[in-house]
Amino acid sequence: MFSEFLRKARKAKKMSQGELARQLGVTQQAVGKWEKEKATPAPDMVARIAEVLETTTDYLLGFNQPSPETLQAEERFFGGRQQCLIPVIGTVKAGYGGLAFEEDYGTEYACVKDPDNYFFLVVKGDSMEPRIFDGDLALVHRQNTLDDGDLGVMVYGDEGGEGTLKKFIRRGNAVVLKAFNPQYEDKILRGEELSHLYIAGKVVETKARW
């Protein structure tokens, strides 16, 4: 029933009735009535609730609910990961004091353990063809280091430099940013140049979307 699934979704987000009410622009009493089956929100409000709680209207309305056996099997298979909504961004840039994530393209589902440490990046250009194409989505784990051979999102250059998706290769005291497309030359960074290299994260998955 709606009241039960609403309460479960709210608690899963560790959100109080008051906080949910504030984000929805309603009173806490309204949320309390929904969870006690004393009232039912309008369809457009159900959609808004699903958005705020990062779930689906089908879940809140009780459609396609997985059985306990299915949930246990999925937990074993995915190692505790779950389907979560991850922000989709268009640009990573170097800024004062760190990295800036710009251009909001909404959200996309991914199966991860710690969703706050991930973002999707919309791939731009053809430098990673034929494996990754312009408009594909790259799921990136936020981290400031990469191992040799990792596919990463990096920003090179001074203030305002834009992020690039490349293979990260260590070669002695140098770092090579390698494209898959043979028409693009390797970018080799040495010495002082390495201080202008910012790592935004490691690409763990790519998929076509756009």
Describe this structure in words.
It is a single chain. With 210 residues, this protein is of the alpha+beta class. It has two domains: 2-65, 434 Repressor (Amino-terminal Domain) (Orthogonal Bundle); 82-207, Ribbon (Umud Fragment, subunit A). It contains six helices and nine strands, in the order H-H-H-H-H-H-E-E-E-E-E-E-E-E-E. It has helices at residues 2-12, 17-24, 28-35, 43-52, 57-60, 68-78; strands at 82-95, 98-112, 118-122, 137-142, 151-156, 163-171, 174-178, 187-189, 197-207. It has a nine-stranded mixed β-sheet. A hairpin with a 2-residue loop joins strand 1 and strand 2 (98-112). Helix 2 packs across helix 3. The longest helix has 11 residues, at 2-12. The radius of gyration is 21 Å and the shape is elongated. The two termini are 36 Å apart. The relative contact order is 0.12.
